[in-house]
Predict the 3D structure of the following.
Amino acid sequence: MQSYNLSHLRELEAESMFVIREVAAQFEKPALLFSGGKDSIVMLHIANKAFFPARIPFPLLHIDTGHNFPETLEYRDNLVKKLGARLVVGHVQESIDKGRAVEETGPQASRNMLQTVTLLDTIEEHGFDALMGGGRRDEEKARAKERFFSHRDEFGQWDPKNQRPELWNLFNSRKKMGEHFRVFPLSNWTEMDVWQYVLLENIEMPSLYFSHDRECVDRKGTLLARSDYVKLMDGEKWEMMHIRFRTIGDMSCTGATVSAANSLEEIIQEVAAARVTERGSRADDKRSETAMEDRKKEGYF
Amino acid sequence: MEHFSGNGYLDMELLRFTTAGSVDDGKSTLIGRLLYDSKSIFEDQYEAIRLSSERRGEPEVNLALLTDGLRAEREQGITIDVAYRYFATPKRKFIIADTPGHIQYTRNMVTGASTANLAIILVDARKGVLEQTKRHAFIASLLGIPHLVICINKMDLMDYDQQVFERIKKEFQGFASKFKVQDIQFIPISALKGDNVVEKSQNMPWYGGSTLMYLLETIHIGSDLNLVDCRFPVQYVVRPQTDEYHDYRGYAGRVDGGIFKPGDKVMVLSSGFTSKIKAIDGPEGPVQEAFAPMSVTIRLEDELDVSRGDMIVRVNNVPEISQDIDMMVCWMNPAKLQLNGKYGIRHTTREARCVVKNILYKVDVNTLHRMQDDKEVGMNDIARISVRTTKPFFFDKYQINRFTGSVILIDEGTNETVGAGMII
């Protein structure tokens, strides 16, 4: 007998396609935030399916901290070309040059916080009314309370205590002038789902996710890759390590994991056995117990 | 390794459930145990809540802190909103809609229940069936959750006594007979000690049923969605306008009910024109069948004027088409429901305005009594109302189809979602 059940990955895929199509239908000028990380890669892959054989009816938006892994930019440009998509880039350096943002100083300096200024400026400049992001609820405790359609006021702020209830699959996109929405089509995915889906769909991933040799410094348990943006502190030294990245962000705050996982199957096995969350290696989340919530309230993704 | 590679693991089912219980019922402990015993709590998460518990001067690691994510919640020790939790076993992936058990309870439980296949209702074995237990069961049935699991918790404090379990079970069945639930199961547990949660209890040999985890992993959910009445609300029209796909015109959407096949004779609402399905494009290419909850693109034989908000149905099985809709509404906003007030209304992919023509009665959610004299509908109230919309809607009764039977009401001044409606 024919079974009318979808597997969990196909059900999640169907849900994400539905959400992405709702965004295209309900908003006038949406964009898809593309960071080059695995979540935004999967989101873009699904967006491409949602409108096939037409092209994706919105541009990709990349907030460039200037501290990217070169591999990320190369991957981004190849993918944009392949999909025939339009790419908009907001540069943190520009925000700094204009005096809109002030660079952090010291050995722990990061441009992670400055992204928010550039992001909000870019939204305003292009008049975007909805931004899709690859955020997942399993990532972090503040994200567990996010809606699919998350309302932002005219200052780009999130008010977690006053969110609109979200029922069934009915998404309320109404807003006033100057307000916008953040939309999270992958809300219900876990890190494991993302990797299983990458395997199922055979999606090409940036080389950073696979094990390789790289010089890193161990800073209080976070392994930071050698680059011009990370300065050694007293007693620290660069060491060659066999690592891969579980998340990809700014080079100044994304920690690596010691790993020999070289294939998707090995990565899935490693994720299944992992005893710390993927954000456990993010220095940006360790600033305080509610670091993510505080950044999100101000307009961070 | 073996169950994490290959198709066995990639083919898991997804079960969405919600948990209901009040502050002291041990809900957080139960969720903590499900997450902990399924190894879904990571070391850094555990370390973070261990440190928090220590700072707060608590003697043991407080698993409830896992579910309290926001600053205000941690500071005040309360839970504000619906939070979503994830865990998986080799058999299934689970999504928990975790709703707080006190203020604004109805609003949050309705939200969490709207997408759930199953609800766990916790009953404290010392207290038995309380008013709130009835309220939880009523909301679960109102929201059409197909499976109810009543966990009679804290059995360890009642000497694991079978009499206690049987008495509470009988009491619950007594009032549950008043409303419709497809499937109710009872399990005696101790969330704290772990009895019958993941491991079978050695303390209750008289209980021959399954553990909660076993039930969650095996309960049959394949027939929960409507596979009979074909409903396809059009979300978006796909027109590539490229050389290769010059004449391609597809209707993108998610199947809300029934099974669509190429060759089916279909009708497009609102126009009423009929055509045949030429092809159905799924995420992996053309498919021979599309059923709920698949996202697909349907192509028709004839060129018709079809746009977002229209619905593709079978010629011999059409939904109700009307501007007058009767519904049970759960009110979700401090501003009261206004008789003769105008609201935005959203149903499937269709949006319009409506006016509240009548408030028939309000339900006392504790006694299930219909209050015809009290028509003040405020936050957390449930009432039966009728509305008239500015254009026809194509709908089914909520009990027949949760997707084509639900609406939300929107305040046109604040843009907030103020009401959740279930069509009757």
Helices of chain B lie at 6-10, 27-37, 43-55, 71-76, 105-113, 131-142, 162-176, 212-218. The radius of gyration of chain B is 24 Å. The longest helix of chain B spans residues 162-176.
